[in-house]
Design goal:
heterodimer; A: 950 residues; Mth169, Chain: A; Phosphoribosyl-aminoimidazole Synthetase, Chain A, domain 2; 7-stranded mixed beta sheet; 25% strand; globular; B: 257 residues; alpha/beta; Rossmann fold; 9-stranded mixed beta sheet
């Protein structure tokens, strides 16, 4: 065994180390002068000194910037002023670098290496005591879920465990509810469910095998089957049999748009792009894994949704990523963070890094997103990962395998990763989660996934497979189980390639190892398919075949370990019966005079929710594939907050795709109905703002809720679904796919903290001509500023009220008939190229929108509040400036286009309320014509940029 | 006239191959996406092509350093073929990860020979971050680089975490520097973010002494069409993006041989 250390030369900067110096300082620990990071490689081999030198010089160390040493431990012991901490991955956690290093060493002609392990050694220089060091380890360097600090005599290459087959039956005493319930909980069944299972097996006259119970539990889990949404819900006395079918899916059916090609059945929703190509779109959540290991959880979240796209129809190419996160406030005091929970700042940094590292490596532009902050997300952060794909329309429908087609598993190997991830995802977190759920966390390997994408698209075009799906939550169990519903299947689990030995048949079947896809391949194509995969250095194996007996049969070395009926697997689950209640809550209204408006505006611009996210955005590659038309950051200095993203997926075509999102969980504290309606409106506003129209807009829903076993929580879910139905119909924008993550609650000091009811609406739209796209930055002094839409006294749940410490009650509502007309007219104006800039009014209302347009364009603006069309009892300047009423836009129009624009806007609420100026200030005149605000654009921009300038 | 056959090299983790092919096709080339394995197994022959392109991406995940593993593979398994390709007048362009690959395999600054060792590197950005942003560039009018003929200034996006060029003083002095990071007025700069990575001498792109092997960190293939520019909706869109000329120059040069 050999140990190699690689490190930057003393005189050169070590950027990873410098980042840590900053991180340590942020922890409140002073006195650090330097941190250096060493890469440690353990080689399981017996090599000559010359060979080690060769490996170091040619491969591991950069000859210009790095030094190395082997077999000697430099600065091995911590001494005064210099502390050494070595961090390695836990057994079973595989660092992708190890595999790459093996390949590269073999390229060098050195073949007799059995294994490579990596570690990192941190050399910290400064004045520290033990408690400082412990803090640095626990808060920055080590996540015990996947890592540990290395002691003096590490066992780097533990012996591989053996597995010897023994079939495990589970006895289900049909008449003993207590015992049944106990067994049920172990596998994740409710009592009703385990009773149905017991009666099924008693009918078969035998006890189930453990893997049969695992399969049923996974297939019936909330994550896989959405049983709450499909349950029978008694809502304030009215019974709703299947919430999803009666609200969201119903609206899509009623709208019946011919351009919806595949909705609510495949891994993603599919719409027509241009008659030749089809677009698919899916957004997933990866909340629970991200909560305990932000980097791994978020990166595998991206990996998972990308595979959904690759597994839609007969395979789509991923072309765009969108990511939305919800965290606690990054400046939360450490002592307020519950035990066993990571600090929001670390969560944000880890999630951002995971999403960027995975998405960038896949070569998929990440060009849209949002981050919401609320301390109720501290223990249950939300990580939404979405991907858009494109495919020739002929491949847009789910495939159909024939009996006799072979089951091919391609991509990464199977390990103990993510065992019980699905049941974990469906459960409530507690401080013990970090201990019990270690096997649910995985480190992704994006290059394996990239190879899968490259190869599958080629295989698709050669029509080598008849059906495809991804291995996601539930692993092979879900993927194969679902794919074989109509036929039946036989799988030989011993033919699944493993990362390491020691896995039982059951673990192989339910493992959620990443980067795997399943294909149905006609026998005559299998050789060509396997050759294609081999040529791309991607593993693919035949693990079974589809049958015609509608049975799920599993074998391990010719022993049958599972034999259940597909009908029971998919139809045998007893429907959930739930009770839901909703009643409007009441909050205190602010009762204060108008505070200083300039200070209020600066405070809101600098709030976590509204401040610039440039620090995050610039670390995503949003230009790869060359498709971006409107980028996430726009304006004179490329740093203004763009509304929706516009991309051109076919570089030689002018047809574009608009992607936007709407999310505002603050409103759900008042009424989840209007929260959901507002989220839809926001996603549509952004599409209109960039020059799109409502003609072809499809929506995705993503519900993240607390424990819906509680009637009031379920009631709020019902309210939100009803809004989705109503608003979808009113705007003519169908839902095409969706996802939910329930039970986002956390036990802390005997209290349960639930996240705010959070609905993310993601919207996708086809834009006929990308040359009509409009950015939000003011373009020219002298242009007129119009507001489109009515301002109401709607500050309930607003950023302004939040800044005053209130929630309020007057939540923004929606008048969809007027709103649709207004959006349609505005679309006509942008189509005629009359609109020079457009920005929607959302969090922070008019005040924030105009400030953003001004500093993004590096121009000033004058605003006259008394010109603003108002409705209802709104009489205060501050309320006008910060109301968050829906369906409103600010529009810049050239004076010569004034008449034409006003003509087009006839019949909808619209007024000229100011002017773009060459001054470097934003000036606002109040209802009495007094100047109530005059503030420099640079000051506004600085307040907006400062919080997340990390 | 026969088409200018252009090989776009693919390897595990390459991800800018499609848009690079698009740029070359627009410039009149005939492109083939070729997997590195096909060259190593001799299923495809480098000699059949006139231009070879190393596109951007994260080959082998950039594990062990950006471009390192593929550079190793190339110098061990394709070194002779590439040396012959250059000798026969073939053109090579490396973009981003392709630049990292070319310096780490010793193909740049060149000349490539069996004993050549890496003398230039591209290392972590000074900011410690991956940077996706647009940068101003100026071309060195004294360089004999074929790709930048008649180009003075460019505005292109970068997207990388390891783009800081570092070499010993003597090596630096002898480099055929082609592109500099500049401020908005065209002056080479060491100031962040105009120089997005802290590259020595503000170097954004270099060439070998023949002028035939060129590499740069910014992505010219991402600015072929006017509407790829971040400010096109303010300033109107150009007929062609700044990056296009680089591909046009290469294809034209081969055509006019």
């Amino acid at each position: 065994m050999h140990r190699i250390e690689v490190y930057f030369k003393e005189q050169l900067p070590d950027s990873a180390g410098q980042g840590l110096v900053k991180g340590i300082y942020d922890l409140g620990i002073d006195g650090i002068s330097d941190v250096r990071v060493m890469e440690v490689y353990w080689l399981d081999a017996e090599l000559e000194k010359q060979e080690l030198k060769f490996i170091c010089q040619r491969l591991l160390a950069d000859p210009i910037t790095q030094d190395y040493n082997f077999n000697g431990i430099i600065n091995g012991k911590s001494e005064d002023g210099l502390y050494s901490i070595e961090v390695a991955y836990n057994a079973g956690v595989i660092d992708p670098v190890e595999e790459t290093a093996m390949k590269a060493v073999q390229d060098l002609g050195i073949k007799n290496i059995r294994a490579i392990k990596t570690a990192k050694r941190y050399l910290i220089r400064g004045n520290l005591d033990k408690s400082d060091l412990d803090l640095i380890c626990s808060r920055l360097l080590v996540n015990p879920i996947i890592q540990h600090t290395v002691g003096d005599n590490p066992v780097v290459f533990p012996e591989s465990p053996r597995y010897s087959f023994s079939l495990k039956h589970v006895e289900l005493p049909e008449d003993d509810d207590a015992e049944l319930s106990c067994i049920g909980r172990r596998f994740g069944f409710s009592l009703n469910e385990i009773k149905a299972v017991a009666s099924y097996f008693s009918g078969l006259g035998r006890n189930p095998v453990d893997v049969e119970l695992e399969t049923l539990a996974q297939t019936w889990s909330e994550h896989c089957v959405h049983k709450t949404f499909k349950g029978k819900i008694n809502f304030n006395g009215t019974v709703i049999d299947n919430l999803l079918k009666n609200t969201i899916i119903k609206a899509t059916g009623d709208l019946n748009k011919p351009w919806c090609l595949s909705v609510f059945k495949d891994n993603a929703g599919v719409i027509d792009f241009d008659g030749k190509w089809a677009l698919c779109f899916k957004v997933e959540t990866h909340n629970h894994p991200s909560a305990i290991e932000p980097y791994g959880g978020a990166s595998t979240g991206v990996g998972g949704v990308v595979r959904d796209i690759l597994g839609t129809g007969l395979g789509a190419k991923p072309i765009f990523n969108t990511d939305v996160f919800c965290f606690g406030d990054p400046d939360m005091p450490y002592e307020d963070v519950p035990e066993g929970v990571l600090h929001p700042r670390r969560m944000l940094k880890g999630v951002r890094a995971g999403v960027a590292d995975y998405g960038n490596r896949l070569g998929i532009p990440t060009g849209n997103g949002a981050i919401c902050f609320d301390n109720r997300y501290t223990a249950n952060p939300l990580v939404y990962c979405g991907t858009v794909g494109i495919m020739p329309e002929e491949f847009s429908q789910m495939g159909n395998q024939k009996p006799g087609d072979l089951v091919v598993l391609a991509g990464g190997r199977t390990g103990r990763d993510g065992i019980h991830g699905v049941t974990f995802a469906s459960e409530q977190l507690s401080k013990d989660s970090t201990r019990v759920s270690f096997s649910s966390v995985q480190i992704g390997n994006p290059i394996v996934e990239k190879k899968l994408i490259d190869t599958i698209i080629q295989a698709r075009d050669r029509r080598l497979f008849t059906r495809i799906t991804d291995c996601g939550g539930g692993g092979l169990s879900s993927a194969v189980g679902e794919m074989a519903t109509e036929t039946g299947v036989k799988i030989h689990l011993d033919r699944v390639p493993l990362k390491y030995t020691g896995l039982s048949y059951s673990e192989i079947w339910i493992s959620e190892s990443q980067e795997r896809m399943i294909m149905a391949v006609p026998p005559e194509n299998v050789e060509e398919l396997l050759n294609l995969f081999a040529g791309e250095n991607t593993e693919a194996s035949v693990i079974g075949e589809f049958t015609d007996d509608k049975k799920l049969q599993l074998f391990y070395n010719d022993n049958q370990v599972c034999n259940i009926d597909m009908d029971f697997l998919h139809e045998g689950r007893p429907q959930l019966e739930l009770r839901a209640l909703w009643q409007k809550s009441s909050h205190t209204e602010p009762n204060s005079d108008q505070p200083d408006l300039a200070q209020s505006l600066l405070k809101i611009l600098g709030s976590w929710n509204i401040c610039s996210k440039e620090w995050v955005i610039r670390q995503y590659d949003h230009e790869v594939q060359g498709s971006s038309v409107l980028k996430p950051l726009v304006g004179k200095e490329n740093d203004g907050p763009g509304d929706a993203a516009v991309i051109r997926p076919i570089l030689d075509s002018n047809i574009g795709v608009i992607i936007s999102n709407g999310i505002n969980p603050k409103y759900s504290d008042i009424d989840p109905y209007w929260m959901a309606a507002s989220a839809i409106d926001e996603s549509l506003r952004q599409i209109i703002a960039v020059g799109g129209n409502l003609e072809r807009v499809a929506l995705l829903d993503n519900f993240c809720w607390g424990n819906t076993g509680k009637p009031e929580r379920l009631g709020s879910l019902v309210r939100a679904c009803q809004a989705c139905h109503d608003i979808s119909i009113a705007y003519g924008t169908p839902f095409i796919s969706g996802k939910d993550s329930l039970n986002n609650e956390f036990e802390f000091h005997g209290n349960t903290i639930a996240i705010p009811d959070t609905l993310l609406i993601s919207a996708i739209s086809v834009m006929p001509n990308i040359n009509k796209a409009v950015s939000m930055d003011f373009k020219k002094a002298g242009d007129l500023i119009y507001i489109v839409g009515t301002t109401y006294d709607e500050l309930g749940g607003s950023e302004y009220f939040k800044s005053l410490g209130y929630i309020g009650n007057d939540v923004p509502q929606l008048r969809p008939e007027q709103a649709k007309r207004l959006m349609d007219n505005l679309s006509k104006a942008t189509d005629k190229k009359l609109v020079k800039a457009c920005h929607d009014l959302s969090e922070g209302g008019l005040g924030v929108a105009i400030a953003e347009m001004a500093f993004a364009g590096n121009l000033g603006a004058t605003l006259i509040l008394k010109e603003i069309p108002l409705c209802g009892s709104i009489t205060r300047n501050d309320y006008i400036l910060f109301s968050e009423s829906n369906s409103r836009f600010l529009v810049e129009i050239s004076p010569e286009d004034e008449a034409e624009f006003e003509k087009l806007m006839k019949g909808v609420i619209c007024a000229c309320i100011g002017e773009v100026t060459a001054l470097d200030t934003l000036q606002v005149f109040g209802l009495n014509n007094d100047r109530i605000l005059s503030i420099e654009i640079d000051t506004l921009k600085e307040a907006w940029q400062k919080p997340l300038k990390w | 006239m026969s088409k200018v056959r252009t090989l776009i090299l693919r390897a595990p983790g390459t991800n800018c191959d499609m848009e690079t092919a698009f740029a070359f096709e627009k410039a009149g080339a005939e492109t083939s996406l070729i997997h590195i394995g096909e060259l190593i197994r001799r299923e495809k022959m480098l000699g059949d092509y006139r231009i070879m392109s190393f596109p951007g991406g994260f080959t082998y995940g950039d594990d062990l350093g950006a471009g390192k593993v593929i550079a190793n593979e190339i110098s061990l398994k394709l070194g002779e073929d590439i040396a012959l390709f250059i000798e026969n007048g073939g053109l090579i362009i490396g973009i981003c990860n392709g630049f990292q690959t070319l310096v780490k395999s010793g193909i740049l600054p060149g000349p490539l020979s069996p004993n050549i060792r890496q003398s230039v590197t591209l290392t972590n950005n000074d900011s410690g971050k991956f940077e996706c942003r647009w940068v101003y560039l100026a071309a060195n009018s004294k360089s004999n680089c074929i790709f930048t003929k008649d180009i003075e200034r460019l505005y292109l996006p970068v997207a990388h975490g390891e783009g800081k060029l570092v070499a010993d003083a003597q090596v630096l002095d002898n480099l055929n520097i082609v592109l500099y990071y500049t401020d908005e007025d065209g002056n080479p700069t060491m100031n962040y973010p105009d120089n997005p990575n802290g590259s020595q001498k503000s170097i954004a792109g270099i060439c070998d002494n023949t002028g035939h092997v060129f590499a740069l960190m910014p992505h010219p293939e991402r600015y072929i069409k006017g509407s790829q520019h971040p400010m096109w909706s303010r300033e109107g869109s150009k007929k062609q993006g700044d990056g296009f000329k680089i591909f046009q120059n290469a294809v034209d040069w081969v055509k006019h041989l």
